[in-house]
Amino acid sequence: MMGLEKSKGENAMKKMKWIWAAAGSIVVLAGIIWACFGEKIKTIYVSLNSFKDENLAHTFQHTPEIQPTKKISRGENTFQFLQEDNVTLTEEFDFENTRYPVGSFLEDTKTTALLVIKDDVVKYEKYFCGGNDDTLFSSNSMGKSFVSALMGIAVAEGYVGSVEDPLGKYIPEFKNTELEDIPIKACLQMASGIDFNEDTDMSGFSMRTLMGSPAMKVIAKYGMQEKPYTYRRYLSINTEILGKVITNATGYSLAEYMEEKLWKKIGAAHDAYWTLSNGTELAMGGLSVSLRDYARFARLYLNGGIYNGEQRKLGAGQRGCQCRILKTGRKPRRIQRNRIRIPVVGAGRGGRRVYGNRRLWTVDLCKSRRTGDYCKDKRRPKVYGKVL
Fold it and tell me: What angle do CA 120, 123, 124 make, to 5 degrees?
């Protein structure tokens, strides 16, 4: 009997030793994983938490405090807009034969700030959700407009030979792949033909790059869905590719190039910040900029790229419709290009439009009678109430 009890006691001790050994191994393994991937896991957790609906307004106004970023310093001189007081916003506007109350529109689109400027005079400016004129609003995909502007400057300065150059000339990871011969211009016009679905593939792409996989190596594996210029399909990876072309061609990071070529030259009032992914600027949409500084950037487009007499070549390859839409069936209602979409800044995608001199510039597609191509249409909206 005593021998049996002794045997049971020894077995129990062995089990405890195994349990403690297993627990110790798990702790050691967890420590190794945390040492290797802890910061990345933390970044993923913070990102997922930041993009919950209840946190969006705060996230889009405080991104540099939440995510790793790189500073883009302003220049010494600030361009000052004039201010007109006691101007009220129009009560309603008409778009596509439907009348919308402005107040409801701003609320439905979760707009966090609204700025209306005409002839360099601030007509209306209002902030919501705790923001003010010093708040740095996250650009999200509006940052693509800045990347295309930097591409135009890189072409003008000779770093990039032409927007007709193939991607493989500037991105070694694309050599001997299906993506090698895609023209830069096709990415600028969201017509690269890469086999990527913005809705279903973006989360996987983001996770792989966050965990350390080089973005260009990941993109190179997607292959082609159709020839360049066949269709316009909005793919954020097109702008990631453009960012890599710029950095490889110029030797600057995107933040450095923007600081030297744009931000110190357009009279910005605030420093800007570019969100980083694995230490590299997120070209597809990671800028944090004050509302009036978005407008200062927009002035370059309104003035043909000229600020204080200095010409900045912007958005090479953006203008003009180069894509013949060959697919039959329902044509898309809208296209998105690497183009300016400010000064309305909001969490909702529906609030991003450009208002200038009483015109609402849309990117609805209209079929050219002469060429059969779909090109952008310019419409004058019917405005009700007091017109600014």
Answer: 130
